[in-house]
């Protein structure tokens, strides 16, 4: 497999084509961003930690029957994935109220949501990722009825697998965002799963162990990501 041209550079990852038209290389950079790119900083070790963390989680999800784009690790900060046609919708499950739902609905941070709630957002930095509903997704042709149902079912299946995994490490999976794409017509989990795209709290102290440490200037951002990994039995190469 040969890495070729840069296809695009996102806020934290860059994507390259390969000699196989069905495969891409993702490079996890140290760049960290929040608030639609308004706050930016390079954090030492972040690319390597997120790449290796994501690989371990994607493998767990794949083994549990969630189809993912992940193929294999290529280096400390690169992996090989299937090339998907991305659906421009972010799927969010919330087990506990935090972040935007607290501001939007005036609910208390930390309130357990039973059953967990599901939301969708249009992936658009220019518009600040507005919240959308299933009718928008259908009417604008971003996904079909069946694709929406599959994304929703897979997003909840990820919750079943990961809530338990993090709980075993004494952590609460508060919420997370997933992105899906199509691979030869099949809905497949894309993007990444790392502490950049979810909220994780220590179960006893409720200490934040995710990107909120960066958003809220709490410090020790990457140390917290590493601690999450270590609690799940991961080791990181730099
Ligand atoms: O900001 P909000 O509370 O809606 O985020 C819900 C979850 O989705 C959080 O875990 C957040 O880190 C993640 N998210 C993300 N990328 C976005 C928006 C939200 O990873 N563009």
From TrEMBL:
GO terms for molecular function: phosphoribosylaminoimidazolesuccinocarboxamide synthase activity. InterPro entries: SAICAR_synt/ADE2_N, SAICAR_synt_PurC, SAICAR_synth, SAICAR_synthetase, SAICAR_synthetase_CS. The keyword ATP-binding applies. It comes from Alloalcanivorax gelatiniphagus. This is Phosphoribosylaminoimidazole-succinocarboxamide synthase. Pathway: Purine metabolism; IMP biosynthesis via de novo pathway; 5-amino-1-(5-phospho-D-ribosyl)imidazole-4-carboxamide from 5-amino-1-(5-phospho-D-ribosyl)imidazole-4-carboxylate: step 1/2. The gene is purC. Keywords: ATP-binding, Ligase, Nucleotide-binding, Purine biosynthesis. Belongs to the SAICAR synthetase family. The keyword ATP-binding applies.
């Amino acid at each position: 497999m040969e890495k070729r041209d840069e296809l695009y550079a996102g806020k934290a990852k860059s994507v390259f084509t390969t000699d196989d038209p069905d495969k891409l290389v993702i490079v996890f950079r140290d760049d960290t961003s929040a608030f639609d790119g308004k706050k930016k900083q390079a954090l030492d070790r972040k690319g390597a930690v997120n790449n290796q963390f994501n690989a371990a989680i994607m493998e767990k999800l794949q083994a549990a029957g969630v189809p993912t784009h992940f193929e294999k690790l290529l280096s400390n900060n690169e992996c090989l994935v299937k090339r998907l046609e991305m659906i421009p919708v972010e799927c969010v499950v919330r087990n506990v109220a935090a972040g935007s739902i607290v501001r939007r609905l005036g609910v208390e941070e930390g309130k357990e949501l039973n059953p967990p709630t599901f939301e969708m957002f249009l992936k658009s930095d220019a518009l600040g990722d507005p919240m959308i509903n299933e009718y928008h997704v259908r009417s604008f042709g971003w996904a079909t009825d069946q694709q929406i149902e599959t994304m929703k079912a897979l997003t909840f299946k990820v919750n079943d697998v990961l809530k338990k995994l993090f709980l075993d490490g004494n952590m609460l999976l508060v919420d997370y965002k997933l992105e899906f794409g199509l691979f030869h017509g099949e809905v497949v989990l894309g993007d990444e799963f790392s502490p950049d795209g979810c909220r994780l709290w220590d179960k006893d102290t409720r200490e934040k162990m995710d990107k909120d440490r960066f958003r809220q200037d709490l410090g020790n951002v990457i140390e917290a990501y590493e601690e999450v990994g270590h609690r799940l039995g991961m080791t990181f190469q730099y």
